[in-house]
Amino acid sequence: GAVVSQHPSWVICKSGTSVKIECRSLDFQATTMFWYRQFPKQSLMLMATSNEGSKATYEQGVEKDKFLINHASLTLSTLTVTSAHPEDSSFYICSARSRALNTGELFFGEGSRLTVL
Amino acid sequence: GENVEQHPSTLSVQEGDSAVIKCTYSDSASNYFPWYKQELGKGPQLIIDIRSNVGEKKDQRIAVTLNKTAKHFSLHITETQPEDSAVYFCAASKGYSSASKIIFGSGTRLSIRP
To answer: B42 to chain A: which residues are within 8 Å by CB?
Structure first.
């Protein structure tokens, strides 16, 4: 099956700093990737749709300037949490579909746990 | 936009018994309904999915049913085993192209009692 890799798997940072999370599709090309946020014991909330070569599409209520998304190639999307604050602490998960497989299955990365002190 | 509701939020069943999780969706245009299993600290993994042109699908101990008229779908796990303990999410999507968004339900924490 298709594999999606995220890095780092966990990160601790100081309040006010920025953190970048990478999402890579290892064995398939993804023109679109999705970024989700998950709080403890809660569901996955879609934050934005990352589009290769163009601007990301953000869900209502998600701050574009806070969560910068860049999808520079068909296998890499990055999420940068800018000027992080403790309330940004969460589990961030990326996902993608394989255009070649065309099954509809969404493949998820293993997630990145962000803790802001 | 699409809204997916899931019940129950927690479910405890005796090992060997069956477990049923139910979901409803709001957008009649949704036509792809996957179920994901998430273990602690990991990303979700697809366990089964169903498209709107099918009413039921089965894969070994797991089955999913879909009622398009009522806009609800259910996950059935039979002969439950300890390794079935996890959080399960239903989801709905309009289409299954690479750009189709998937909206998740609130999740069900399933515990299997030995």
So the answer is: 110-111
